[in-house]
Amino acid sequence: MANAKTTGPPTGDRVREALTWLERRGTKKNRDGMARYAIVAPKAFGVSVADIRQLAKKLGRDHELAAALWETGWYEARMLTAFVDEPDRVTPTQMDRWARDFDNWAICDTLCFHLFDRTPHAWRKIAQWSTKRDEFVKRAAFALLASIALHDKKEADEPFLRSLELIERGATDDRNFVKKAVSWALRSIGRRNSALNAAAVAVAKRLVESAESAPRWVGRDALRELTSPAVQRRLKPAR
User: Which of 125, 177, 190, 202 has minimal Cβ neighbours within 10 Å of its Cβ?
Assistant: First the structure.
């Protein structure tokens, strides 16, 4: 599992080695834990995220290896791609294809949080995926928005202000995994600075007044955090 791409073993051999490594570390306890947290995967060894990240460090960044790992269909191999793929080589087509394969919230969030938000296509995918019907593709739009809000400290306020319209539309989706991601995105934007906090709080208050239950839930969930003393104290110096 050497890091060198030009002198190391062929990609197929590295995939087989990785799967063997993962299988040896899989446990029933971890698989049961996945089930308790509503992580449903048809092929899973039951390996902890800490072990997956340990393997990723051994493998290094390798776009071709990530693609081959994804194609195995194993949950842990797909989690591994978030830490192995090269963000600047990820294409929009690849993002769409992998998003269509998302079958649980953990794989969706991990890819968005550790890989997709580092690509130059992230904002475009947020807009596109926010209109999709598939539950985990739509969740990915808002998980990706939350990830950018949390990670990109240099991004201006304007893209986040524009995204609040997507959040208001997305909040009407009453599916659990979607509405939780919508709330995550709204709360993450509102924690960036005082101006975005005020804008996010205004959206949350409108959602609370909705006649529908899903927007009300998102609004209340966001308001609890965004108006909390802890968040307000942290934002105060920036005013």
Answer: 202
42: DSSP letter: S
When pLDDT is cut at 50, 70 and 90, the band that residue 159 belongs to is very high
Percentage with pLDDT > 90 across the chain: 95
**Residue 2 has what pLDDT?**
41
What is the DSSP code (8-state) at residue 39?
-
The Cα angle at residue 20 between residues 67 and 32, in degrees rounded to 5: 95
Global model pTM greater than 0.90: yes
150 with 122: CB under 8 angstroms? Answer: no
Count of Cβ atoms closer than 10 Å to residue 221 Cβ:
20
Burial class of 228 by CB neighbour count within 10 A (0 to 12, 13 to 18, 19+): exposed
Q: Is 73 left (phi over 0), alpha (psi -120 to 50) or beta?
A: left
